[in-house]
Amino acid sequence: MHAKVKVVLIDDEHLALQYLEKVLKSYEGIEIVKTYMDPLQAIGDIRDTKPDIVFLDVEMPEMNGIEIAEQILLHHSDTHIVFVTAYEYYAVKAFELNALDYVLKPVKRERLENTLKRIEKEKAEMAPDGSPQSICQIRCFQSIQWESPEGGAETIRWRTSKAQELFAYLIHRRGQPVRKDVLLELFWAEAEWKKGYAHLYTTVYQIRKTLDRLGIGLKLKNYDEGYLLETNGVKIDVEEWENGLRKAPPITQETIHEHLQLIELYRGDYFAEYDYMWAESERQRLRADWYHHASQVGQFLVGTHEYAKAIVLYLRMQQIHPHMEEVYFSLMKLYDLVGDREAVEAQYRQLTGMLLEEFDMSPQEEVRQWYEQWKTPTE
Q: Which spans are transmembrane here (predicted)?
C-alpha cells in the first residue's frame, strides 16, 4: 500500500473490535479512522469521513451487516466493504463463493493480507482518477458488452452469472425504479426471505463494484424500496437502433445505405446468448420489428435488380428467422434470377427438411407449384 488507506471498523463485539484494530494497526499503510459498535452512528459518520475500507461484522442485533453495507455504498460507492464473520458456511454460501470480500473470525494475518492486496488491485483497475470513461454504448443485441469510442467491444467480466443477469434486467428496465420485492420474486423465489435479501444485496454490491471498475458512467442508485439504473448519457444499442428505425426516411436509392446500416446494427436477438425468460416478449417484439424492416429493404433491392445484395440480406433474415417459409421462397426466386440452379435446389431441400422436422408439414401449395414449374424445362 503506497498511500495511507483510511479504515473504519464496525462490530458489536468489543473484544473482536479491539483485536481487529490491533492487527490492522501493525500495517504501516493503514490509518484506523474510527471503530464503532453502533452501526447507525457509523453510517452517519461515514458520509463525512469517506473511508477507503470498512470492516463490517455480518451478524449484529440492530441491522444485518449486508443492509449496513448497502447504506454505506449508497452514500459513498467507492468504499470497499470487507465482511467479518464467525461462520464460514454463511460467508461462502451467502456471498456465493468469494463473490465479496470477507474474513473469518478470529482474523488471520495471511487472510487479511490477501484481502488488502485484492482491494489494492481493484483500485488500480479503476478508471483513471475515478472519472468515467467516454464510451459509445452498451450492447444488448446477442450478448452483453460495452463498446469503446474506438469501436472495440469488450465482454463485461462478472463475478457471478446472477450479477450478469440482474445487470441485464436493470438495463432492460433502465430509467425505471424496480422494487426489491419484485427482484426477489424474479431471481430468488425459492430462497428463504432473509437469505434472498442477502443474495440481492451482495449481487447489487457486485454490480456497483463492477461498474465503478469499468468507469463507464452507469450508476445503480437506491430508489424508495428498490433500485434505479441511471444511464447518464451512456448509449444502449437497442435504443439507438429503435430510434434510428423510427426516424428513418423512406427507402430510396439515396437512403438505402442508411437502411442497410440499421439492419447491420441488429447483431442478433436481444440477449440471445442467455436464457432469460423475462426478456422473451421484448426479444420477440424486436425481432418482429427487424424482420418487417428487413423485408421492406429486401423488396426494394429486388425491385431495383440488386440481386446480390438482396441474397445477402435474405440469408441474414433466414439466419435470424429460420422458420419463415417466405424467406426460403424469396431466396429460391432470387437464385433463379441469377441462374444458380444448385442454390435453388438447396433452398427447397432446406425448406422441406425444416418444415417436416419442426412442424410435420410440407411446403405451401404456392411454393410447391413454383418449384415444380421451375424444374420443368421450357421448350
A: none
